[in-house]
Amino acid sequence: LEIVELSARRMQRLLTSLVEFTRTSRADVALSDVSLNEVVSAARLNLETDIQNAEAGIAVAPLPTVRGHEP
Q1: How far is CA 32 from the centre of its chain?
Q2: Dihedral, CA atoms, 9, 71, 56, 64, nearest 10 degrees?
Q3: How far apart are CA 9 and CA 13, in angstroms?
C-alpha cells in the first residue's frame, strides 16, 4: 500500500508540473538561477522506490547552476 501511495504522489507531482509547464509555455517565463544539483536530488527522491527496486545506483558529479524556470 505504501508503494501505491508513493507512486500516486509522484504521479500527482508529475501532473502538476505538466500543468505548470503548459501555463508557462503560453506566458512570460521568469528565469532564475537553478541548481542542477538540487534538480537531480529532487529527481532521485521522486524515483527512490524505482531505484531501490531495480537495485540501481546513481553517480552524479557536481553540476552547475544555470538560468531557468523553477516552479
Answers
A1: 17
A2: -170
A3: 6
Q: Where is pLDDT greater, at 22 or 65?
A: 65
> The whole model's pTM is what?
0.60
Answer yes or no: are the C-beta atoms of 58 and 51 closer than 8 Å: yes
Q: What's the CA gap between 21 and 13, in Å, rounded?
A: 12
Contacts of 15 (CB under 8 A, 6+ apart): none
Q: Is residue 33 predicted with pLDDT exceeding 80? A: yes
DSSP string over 24-61: HTTSPPPPEEEEHHHHHHHHHHHTHHHHHHTT------
